[in-house]
Amino acid sequence: MAVGEKSRNGDRYDPAVTERDQDLLGGLAPFVGDQHRSTIGVLVSVMRTGRQLESWLSATLTADGLDTSEFTAVVTLLVAGEPYRRSAGELSSSLVQTTGGTTKTIRRLEERGLVVRVDDPDDGRRTLIELTGTGRALAESTLELVLDAFDLDIGDLGEAERHDLGAGLVRLSLELDDRLRNR
Q1: Residue 34 to residues 21, 93, 122: CA-CA distances in angstroms?
Q2: 90-114 pLDDT per residue, tens
Q3: Which of 17, 26, 69, 148 is 20 to 30 A from 90 in CA distance terms?
Q4: 113-133 per-position pLDDT tens digit
Q5: Which residues form the domain of 150?
């Protein structure tokens, strides 16, 4: 179907949505009112893309022996800058993971010598999670690997499209963060 052509359900074809998704969205049309037509498209597309990215990232990380939570944790610590530390709560927020899940992730990273717990210099009652030298080297090399691979896999998206897509996703993420915090 060409851009601008109407599908079976009368909606215009959106090149950002696959045929399968277009059929799914069209199939949902009787169940959603007009005010939700654009919302259902965002919801289905973001959910599907999130699952695809999780699967893609998991496969990409296999060579380095990290899972997606471990990767996110070490990169979060890396981008924190020297001394490459964050609280467990900050990591939990970055990982979009429960505190129990985050504790397990931190424990696995500690066992591999990639992070250590250090006393918080500003609050003696808590500890911070800090990248070790080995953890920093792995975070840097794995981030480079992931970015190189992702760059190839989204090669058809131009620079402007990547910027616009990234900006829209950041805005969506911030909106959802605000709503989740206020529940």
Answers
A1: 18, 34, 52
A2: 999 888 888 999 999 999 999 999 9
A3: 148
A4: 999 999 988 887 889 999 999
A5: 62-154
